[in-house]
Amino acid sequence: MFSVGEIDVKGLQQFENMLGALGAEAPKAVNRAINRTGDMARTQVVRTLARQTGLPQKTIRKSVKVKRSSWANLEYQLKSAGGDVSLKYFKKRETDDGVRAYLGDARGWDWFAESFFRGGRWPRPRKAISWSHGHVFVRVGGRTELEKVKSGVFIPEEMVDGATAKAFEKSVEKNLPRRLDHEISRLLGL
């Protein structure tokens, strides 16, 4: 029986005889189908994860790494590592009481009290702090005792949870049988 991780893909049983007819060429067809389906699923994961977390797709793409399938190892993996994401990467706005940041569809706008990412007196036009590189800070003591503010969003946890996991499963269930049929037909000359 065919399965992709924890996903049981229906309709792949019909391809067993066709793959048997291909002989030594069967791993090539399966490899191509898995890689193409995995790439399509990765696109859906990046889009959905960006909406779910509030991070830009560019940041998500850098975080989600791919290990593609080969003839010997018919496995496609999406991996992500990392910890609490800094507020620097989110849509943020400075108010007179602190910083508001958009943390995705589930969390919405969150407020971080007494934090800042610009310098100068409020409400006059404030300027970016040259040494901060866009990070959000909060004072923990004196004037120069600052601490970076984190969002509470962990990309690896978000990737296997909620809408992102469903988008991955749906993409694989929809595309893998179609891609496998295409690759087998191509090799059989149908």
What would you say this structure looks like, in words?
Helix 2 packs antiparallel against helix 6 (163-188). The two termini are 25 Å apart. The mean pLDDT is 86. The protein has helices spanning 16-22, 26-53, 57-63, 104-107, 155-159, 163-188, and strands at residues 64-67, 77-80, 84-86, 91-95, 98-102, 109-113, 115-116, 118-119, 127-128, 137-139, 146-148, 150-154. The strands form five sheets. Strands 4-5-6 form a three-stranded antiparallel β-sheet. The protein has two domains: 13-82 and 155-188, no CATH class; 86-153, no CATH class. It is α+β, with helices and mostly antiparallel strands.
Highlighted features:
elongated; three-stranded antiparallel sheet; about 190 residues; 2 domains; alpha+beta; about 40% helix; 12 strands
Secondary structure blueprint with pairings:
Blueprint: H1 16-22, H2 26-53, H3 57-63, E1 64-67, E2 77-80, E3 84-86, E4 91-95, E5 98-102, H4 104-107, E6 109-113, E7 115-116, E8 118-119, E9 127-128, E10 137-139, E11 146-148, E12 150-154, H5 155-159, H6 163-188
Antiparallel strand pairs: 1-2, 3-12, 4-5, 5-6, 7-10, 8-9, 10-11
Largest sheet strand order: 4-5-6
Question: Got a strand count?
Answer: 12
Profile the largest sheet. Answer: 3 strands, antiparallel
Number of domains: 2
How far is it from the N-terminal to the C-terminal residue, by CA?
25 Å
Question: Which ranges are low-confidence, i.e. pLDDT below 50, for 5 or more consecutive residues?
Answer: none
**Which structural class fits the helix and strand makeup?**
alpha+beta
Work out the radius of gyration.
Answer: 23 Å
What level of helicity do the residues show?
A: 40-55%
Mean pLDDT: 86
What is the overall silhouette? elongated
